Amino acid sequence: MNRMKKQLIATLMATALLAVPASAFETRAKAAFVLDQATGTVLLSKNADESLPPASMSKLMTLYMAFEAIRDGRLSMEERLPVSQHAMDYGGSTMFLDTTDRVKVSDLLRGIIVLSGNDACAVIAETLSPDGTEAGFARQMTLKARQLGMTNSTFDNSNGWPSPGQRMSMRDLVLLGNLLITEFPEFYAMFSETEFAFDGRAPQNTQNRNPLLKLGIGADGLKTGHTNEAGYGLVGSARQGQRRVIFALSGLESSRARAEVSEQITNWAFRQFSEHNLLKEGKRVATAEVWMGTAPRVGLVAEKDVNVLLPVLGQDDVKAEVVYNGPIEAPIAKGQVLAELVLTPNDLPEIRVPLVAEADVAAGGFAVRLRTATTVLMGQLGLTPEGAT
Fold first, then answer.
1. What is the pLDDT at residue 377?
2. Nearest CA among 57, 63, 58, 104 for reference residue 81
3. What is the pLDDT of residues 171-191, one digit of tens each?
4. How far apart are CA 272 and CA 262, in angstroms?
């Protein structure tokens, strides 16, 4: 069968709205990745698959594994965990834990999310580690990352302390952020907490470093990071109306630059793009030719509502075509995937939407097969049913 492309009918083009080159966002971050959650549209990708030092943004992986352990019953929020000398010895941002403490899991989680506690991560890591060490937990982190599809992430520790094997990509961080939001909604509210004063012992470290949380732009997570090697970074998420944007950036020169770029990216993502319902479930898009069936053609319809993200300004239409291998041999079942609707908005990645059969088409009987065979034979002889050409 030949690969066939059918141009989308004019009525669909009219519903696509006028789409538009949105100006590409120029960021001074070394690497960045921006995702529209609902549609899966990548709005920005800069060095997104480069494995970079993630600093404290890698704490999101420790949190994922802690949430998973709570969900599975291997850990509880009220459980109190001991603090080892190894955990206590961590410097940088900490909860100022010591070996006399037994700390509730709920406090440790907030200590990680709000205070970016290196010591809190180590306590969780040693508790969940298969061999009781942070290094053993880090190996589990790497394995879990692979299972989750994070192909550019490896871990030497639980908290992002500088180490040659502590690496993550911006795409992996956004993937992880999306999983935290969708898989653990019962815990996600902690990421929007702006202050946590643990036991009154660290008044200089009570504030969430996420610069977006108090700006009123819908930001509700996720995690900042900074080391000399990594620069300043942020995994952020914000929701406005029905849309959520998740992004990761790294390699900025200061906390001020991180705040500025993060706010700019958030505003750009919401203001320059909008979601549109392109097709309703069951809406016929085109028809496909049928081979050896009781009908010569079958309608191609959307399997479900098709929502797409489009730039808000401009004059050019979305390019669209229906692609299938045809003619399609009968029998065909209603709902069977037969084709793809390929949409190419300006300045955005290609979108592929499956199209299904609108109705059953049974295989033809003897008369249909004879008529088809005759048509094929006459075509090979250069004839038409009316005579020689």
1. 54
2. 104
3. 999 999 999 999 999 999 999
4. 15
CA distance 201 to 216: 30
pLDDT digits (tens, 9 = 90+) for 277-310: 888 998 899 999 998 899 999 999 998 888 888 8
Query: What is the C-alpha separation between 381 and 389, in angstroms, rounded?
Result: 10
Dihedral sign, Cα of residue 163, residue 120, residue 35, residue 249: negative
Is the CB of residue 124 less than 8 Å from the CB of residue 66? yes
Residue 199 CA to residue 185 CA, distance in Å, equals 27
The set of residues, in sequence order, having a beta carbon less than 8 Å from that of 70 and lying 6+ positions away, is 76, 77, 105, 187
> Following DSSP, what letter does each residue of 93-108 receive, concatenated?
S-----TT-EEEHHHH
pLDDT of residue 380: 57
Told to judge if 262 belongs to the known catalytic residues of this protein, a careful annotator would answer no
Catalytic residue among 46, 56, 58, 237: 56
pTM for the model stands at 0.82
Tokens 């009987």, residue? 365
The question of whether 116 is a catalytic residue gets the answer yes
Contact assessment for residue 205 and residue 115, using Cβ atoms and an 8 Å cutoff: yes
Q: Are 371 and 293 in contact (CB under 8 A)?
A: no
Would you tell me how many other CB atoms lie within 10 Å of the CB of residue 74?
12
Contact 107, 115 (CB under 8 A): no
> 12: helix, coil or strand?
helix
Catalytic residue among 30, 46, 59, 223: 59
Nearest to 351 by CA among 296, 268, 278: 278
114-127: pLDDT as tens digits: 999 999 999 999 99
**Alpha helices (H) along 189-326:** 255-271
Q: What is the mean pLDDT of residues 196-205?
A: 84
pLDDT tens profile 238-281: 999 999 999 999 999 999 999 999 999 999 999 999 888 888 99
58, 84, 93, 116: the active-site residue: 116
Do the Cβ atoms of 127 and 75 come closer than 8 Å?
yes
